[in-house]
Specification:
mainly alpha, rod-shaped
Length: about 110
């Protein structure tokens, strides 16, 4: 059975988890977008290299796409780092760690009751 203090901490932990999940969702989304863009950019880079081997002055759509993908990757990476280092997220993680220290680890016997 949880004490009043433990019950309050457990509810607070749930609220903080919800807030942290928003940050983690943004990070996951940015990571997935970065991964997709890196795959696309890899293919475009190969094609641009092939074109430049044939003609040093080659230009056109693929080179514009290459530049665009580089810019998008840079922006997404900066956004992901910004979210990872967001002071609110960092402080919520600190708070969560402290709450977890305060909450006792419930053993199997307590969970059955």
């Amino acid at each position: 059975m949880l004490t009043v203090r433990q019950d309050i901490l457990q509810k607070w932990k749930t609220e903080i988890e919800h807030e942290l999940n928003r940050f983690y969702g943004k990070i996951d989304k940015a990571y997935n977008e970065i991964e997709q863009l890196q795959i696309r950019k890899g293919i475009v880079d190969e094609l641009c290299n092939d074109l430049q081997r044939r003609d040093r002055d080659a230009d056109g759509y693929l080179f514009e796409l290459q530049k665009n993908l580089e810019e998008k990757l840079k922006v997404l990476h900066e956004e992901m780092v910004q979210v990872q280092n967001d002071p609110k997220k960092v402080q919520l993680e600190m708070l969560m760690n402290r709450i977890l220290e305060e909450l006792p680890v419930l053993d199997e016997f307590n969970l059955d009751n």
